[in-house]
Amino acid sequence: MVVKEMLIPESKMVVRHSRTVRIEHWLIALSTILLIISAMGEIKVIHYVAAFVLILVSCLHVISHFIRKEFGLLQRKGDIKQSFKIIKAMLHGKAEPQHDKYLVEQRVAYTYIFICISVLIFTGFVKLLKEFSSTNDLAKSLKGIGELHNVATAALIIGIAAHLLAFYIRENRPLLNGMLTGKVDLEYVKSRHPIWHKKLNIRD
What we know:
Blueprint: E1 7-8, E2 13-15, H1 19-41, H2 44-68, H3 79-91, H4 104-130, H5 136-141, H6 143-165, H7 173-181, E3 183-185, H8 186-192, H9 194-200
Antiparallel strand pairs: 1-2, 2-3
């Protein structure tokens, strides 16, 4: 679903993310950080509360996007190959290809983190069963799940680090403001996201 008018005339800013999307993003980010910290410190109460928040908000995120038919962040065929070409172009000072609302790298990163969180939620549920049983057989069967949970955690930490480092690139910094305020500069949209700009059909 494409929003027909997203320009804020008096400020020449374009609405990129709704308040709901921003709240979902920051709650997922906060709960994930608390999960990692509480796991390292073995603080079970905080870990369970953060896990509940992560599961709840993640489910709401998926459901809300399906209802609004917003699938722009889903990875597309050829995105991984294209992302390497874009990085190469940036390193050599060459022009990037035209972007839609979301960069190719964003779609790849979204899919990567989505998979990590999905694995963490599934393995976390299975590990929780261990808390309600004292049988050695169950403990042995859950050993592999626990290791998978740890691998997914490590993969997620790497993904978060890469996500944050992406803002070191000057061209990506306006996107951070978009997630903080919901808005990005119209000139930025024109220059870096021309495909999205055409879809918005903004008369300026």
